[in-house]
Amino acid sequence: MVLPFTLIELSVLGIALLIYARHARDYEKITLENSELTIELNLGYKKSLTQWNAPWVRVKDPESLYDRKKDLVILESGAQTISIGQFILAEKRHDLAKEIRQALRLCLH
């Protein structure tokens, strides 16, 4: 009786470790150089790199602290949008939006 339960337990542990390994290296990286804003996202096996002209970028504050999809900082340039801030506390996302806005303003001067 012990062997079947041990196999089930080890299988569940293996699946949990695979899920963890898939997202262990997730990150968001924002770089502002000269007048170019670069947003690099690595989520699971999906990687994306976006480069925008910094003066054209708009920053939207999180809308809600209760809805997971609405509580991220939104960066917009033209028709493109990117949601960032999922790796910091929800309470700090307004500060993130403020810091990005300040950096973009400094870039314009």
In short:
The chain is an alpha+beta fold. It has two helices and six strands; from the N terminus they run H-E-E-E-E-E-E-H.
Ends: how far apart? 73 Å
How much strand? 25-35%
Broad CATH class: Mainly Beta
* Rg from Cα: 19 Å
State the order of secondary-structure elements, H for helix, E for strand: HEEEEEEH
Please tally the β strands and state the result: 6
Structural class given helices, strands, pairing? Answer: alpha+beta
How large is the count of helical segments?
2
Given as residue ranges, the uncertain stretches (5+ residues, pLDDT < 50) are: none
Mean pLDDT across residues:
89
CATH architecture: Roll
Instruction: Give the strand order, joined by hyphens, for the main sheet.
Output: 1-2-3
What coarse outline follows from CA principal-axis ratios? elongated
Structural domain tally: 1
The profile of the biggest β sheet is: 3 strands, antiparallel
What fold name goes in the CATH topology slot? PH-domain like
Residue share in helices?
A: 25-40%
Describe this structure in words.
- The chain is 35% helix and 33% strand.
- It is of the alpha+beta class.
- It has a single domain, classed as PH-domain like.
- Strand 1 (27-33) and strand 2 form a beta hairpin.
- The termini are far apart.
